């Protein structure tokens, strides 16, 4: 195989893979040196000259001339007779540089060399892709649906890079068709073997935060700061915002007139209900705001234990808890406090865990999932509503209510 034929294929790699000349030369030299090591045992006495732009390659082996019959290392030494076949005026002790033709390496070695080159090019590509997307972690990215699987959607970007959107990183209401564009954040990038695995997420709080940056100029410009984001993807989210400029109303700026600014974000997230809240270092006030839309009568806080007992009027309790218990749970995550709700005018109540002798733990857990942790909290609910919000049957709920009522009738 002629040098030029092999080098022409190297130039194709440069064009196809967009590898710069210096990098390609370094890869080529590394590949050839590996081939020389296999053929001659070592490579440090070889000079390799690569010019992929011109399509040529030269390999020169450097040896010392020794007297005939005194060659001990055929790779580093050459007999006087052999040296004079290259140039007739060589003498013992002089250095000889002799060009090595690719054909001298053997057909099998050349095929292996090309395969090694392909492997090195792919490794270089994968490393570059890994670095590129590692720098994009936490940033919004758009790619096209290429293949829909049961546990994930495979996306391709404009450069043909494969991105995985797992099922558990999709919003429950997400439904995508092949060829459709999908937005999310690059959540993680890992090298598995030599191939990068790029994971996209639409459920991470960071996705909502980045959407705020994209859609709300004051957030992008840094005039409004997002302090914290908590989400139940596709259901509800709470975003705490702050501004160091007293002239700016951070909540008003984020929501916009009649919700005009936040509407596109809500639509992107499958109509996720987003509460935007003014951040404050006053923890009591922050809890009050976090439990919006409920209006709180009073709060008793334990800052060391990070617990808060919140008193509300009976009609405000369901607002504080929210559908599926989402509101109170997100308020707790946003503020860092464990929040317990109490009804104003009710002097005594009993926690459900006190009834474990009569009510099974898994039943109590079902009520806790929707924010109902006390006897009176359950008794104030409608049976049909509880059937809808829990996995409990109507008969089970009525039995529980009977047990709880007996506690207060004694």
UniProtKB/TrEMBL annotation:
Coiled coil: none
Domain K Homology: 233-306, 307-384
Keyword terms: Cytoplasm, RNA-binding, Transcription, Transcription antitermination, Transcription regulation, Transcription termination
CDD domains, per the entry: KH-II_NusA_rpt1 (cd02134), KH-II_NusA_rpt2 (cd22529)
SUPFAM superfamilies: Nucleic acid-binding proteins (SSF50249), Prokaryotic type KH domain (KH-domain type II) (SSF54814), Transcription factor NusA, N-terminal domain (SSF69705)
Taxonomy, superkingdom: Bacteria
Compartments where located: Cytoplasm
Short name of any one Pfam family annotated for the protein: KH_NusA_2nd
Cited InterPro entries: KH_dom, KH_dom-like_a/b, KH_NusA_2nd, KH_sf_prok-type, NA-bd_OB-fold, NusA_N_sf, TF_NusA, TF_NusA_bacterial
Subunit details: Monomer. Binds directly to the core enzyme of the DNA-dependent RNA polymerase and to nascent RNA.
Similarity field: Belongs to the NusA family.
HAMAP family according to UniProt: NusA_B (MF_00945_B)
Role description: Participates in both transcription termination and antitermination.
NCBIfam families for the chain: NusA (TIGR01953)
Protein name listed in UniProt: Transcription termination/antitermination protein NusA
Lineage: Bacteria, Pseudomonadati, Bacteroidota, Flavobacteriia, Flavobacteriales
């Amino acid at each position: 195989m002629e040098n030029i034929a092999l080098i022409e294929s190297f130039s194709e790699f440069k064009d196809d893979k967009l590898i710069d000349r210096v990098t390609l030369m370094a890869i080529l030299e590394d590949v050839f040196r590996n081939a020389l090591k296999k053929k001659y045992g070592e490579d440090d006495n070889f000079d390799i000259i690569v010019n992929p732009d011109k399509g040529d390659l030269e390999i020169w082996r450097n040896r010392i001339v020794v007297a005939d019959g005194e060659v001990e290392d055929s790779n580093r030494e050459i007999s006087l007779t052999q040296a004079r076949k290259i140039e007739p005026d060589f003498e013992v002790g002089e250095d000889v540089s002799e060009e090595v033709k690719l054909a001298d390496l053997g057909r099998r070695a050349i095929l292996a060399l090309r395969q090694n080159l392909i492997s090195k090019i792919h490794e270089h590509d994968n490393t570059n892709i890994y670095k590129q997307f590692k720098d994009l972690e936490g940033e919004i990215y758009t790619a096209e649906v290429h293949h829909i699987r049961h546990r994930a959607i495979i996306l391709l970007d404009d450069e043909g890079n494969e991105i995985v959107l797992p099922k558990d990183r999709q919003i429950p209401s997400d439904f995508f068709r092949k060829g459709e564009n999908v937005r999310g954040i690059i959540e993680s990038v890992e090298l598995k073997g030599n191939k990068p695995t790029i994971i996209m997420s639409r459920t991470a709080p960071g996705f909502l935060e980045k959407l705020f940056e994209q859609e709300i100029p004051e957030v992008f410009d840094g005039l409004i700061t997002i302090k914290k984001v908590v989400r139940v993807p596709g259901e509800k989210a709470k975003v705490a915002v702050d501004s160091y400029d007293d002239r700016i109303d951070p909540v008003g700026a984020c929501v916009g007139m009649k919700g005009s600014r936040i509407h596109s974000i809500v639509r992107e997230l499958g109509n996720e209900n987003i509460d935007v809240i003014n951040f404050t270092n006053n923890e009591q006030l922050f809890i009050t705001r976090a439990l919006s839309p409920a209006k709180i009568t009073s709060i008793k806080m334990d800052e060391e234990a990070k617990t808060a007992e919140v008193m509300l009027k009976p009609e405000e309790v369901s607002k504080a808890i929210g559908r599926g218990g989402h509101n109170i749970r997100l308020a707790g995550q946003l503020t860092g406090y464990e929040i317990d709700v109490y009804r104003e005018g009710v002097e005594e109540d009993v926690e459900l865990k006190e009834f474990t002798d009569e009510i099974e733990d898994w039943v109590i857990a079902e009520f806790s999932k929707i924010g109902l942790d006390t006897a009176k909290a359950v008794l104030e609910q409608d049976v049909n509503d509880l059937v809808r919000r829990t996995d409990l049957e109507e008969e089970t709920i009525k039995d529980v209510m009977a047990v709880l009522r007996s506690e207060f009738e004694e």
